[in-house]
Amino acid sequence: MSEPTSRAAAGARIVLKDVTKVYPGQPGPAVDSFSMDIAPGELIMFVGPSGCGKTTTMKMINRIIEPTSGSITIDGQDILTLNPNELRRRIGYVIQQIGLFPHMTIAENIAVVPKLLGWDRNKIRNRVEELLAVVELDPKTFASRYPRQLSGGQQQRVGVARALAADPPVMLMDEPFGATDPITREKLQSEFLRLQEKLSKTIVFVTHDFDEAVRLGDRIAVLSDHSSIEQFDTPANILANPANDYVSQFVGHGAALKRLGLIPVHQASLGPNVAVRGAIEVSVNDSLRDALDALVLSGGTPVAVLNDQGRVVGSIDIEKISAVLGAEILPPALAGGVRP
Ligand SMILES: Nc1ncnc2c1ncn2[C@@H]1O[C@H](COP(=O)(O)OP(=O)(O)OP(=O)(O)O)[C@@H](O)[C@H]1O
């Protein structure tokens, strides 16, 4: 198991120790002795098949489900000693079904927790406007609309804004983008990543989708039945070294390509400058997967790499990409096949 990833953070540390849940009348535990240490500001993905216990594990953190045994602390405080309502106000919660109140406007939906906390009207209004802007919905257009007057993706953004309203240190997200189409989903994921860069919440995020876990997670917990942790590590480490066959199955095909998607071009040692021809070029901040795409389009000819100012700072070819991953990833025949 890897060390928690470091990120200067506003979030809280969450420690689960031997947490078990046995539902009444069930022969075995849904979650069996689950332990995990989550650092402040980490974005942790729970990924696993339907029924393995992801949601049950997550919902014990805000006590929507009460643990049968074990302990959960947030910044050292045992959650069982806190009033559940107070606990839930300190934890943002976003679910796939969104759960906006249909008879309330968007502004009123976002204001639910601040109102419970007794904020004054001005403070609430300012916060609502700020949050709508954060999730890229124009307050003038959207504040007074009702949920049914928004698209699914827009409603999901409101769900995120509502969970952020009281600036909780912890967020729990249960398949939040699961019901959206692939394009909206990718957009919401990118927005969410940008947001997390700024906010550094501690986030537990449940998904079925391993690619989503790779894209978003600081660390991924691959879970099997009873919430058993098969591997808990960074996306790059899981892709490079799946712990067992179960994890390999989850990673699926194309592990090398997925890894390339995580590594920026500037981590490769670049070749000599080449002239920019047409649109086939990449930025130092693009991923090596983008660079590979560009190389396919260029027919294997080295592709120019541009810096933030648009100046050519070098070139990239298949061998430079392969060198970053390690020689074993691309078989020599393939690497040789596209050599210019
Ligand atoms: N209220 C309940 N009473 C009895 N059994 C339950 C209850 N809720 C969940 N379970 C069972 O506990 C196990 C774990 O369920 P859980 O919802 O945590 O899984 P999951 O991994 O989140 O699944 P999914 O991805 O389908 O949401 C399942 O076998 C499920 O049938």
UniProtKB/TrEMBL annotation:
Its EC number is 7.6.2.9. GO terms for cellular component: membrane. Residues 14-251 form the ABC transporter domain. SUPFAM superfamilies: P-loop containing nucleoside triphosphate hydrolases. GO terms for biological process: glycine betaine transport. It is an enzyme of class 7 (translocase). Transmembrane segments: none annotated. Keywords: ATP-binding, Nucleotide-binding, Repeat, Transport. The keyword ATP-binding applies. One of its GO terms (molecular function) is ABC-type quaternary ammonium compound transporting activity. InterPro entries: AAA+_ATPase (IPR003593), ABC_transporter-like_ATP-bd (IPR003439), ABC_transporter-like_CS (IPR017871), Gly-betaine_transp_ATP-bd (IPR005892), P-loop_NTPase (IPR027417). SMART domains: AAA. It comes from the Bacteria. Belongs to the ABC transporter superfamily. This is ABC-type quaternary amine transporter. It comes from Arthrobacter oryzae.
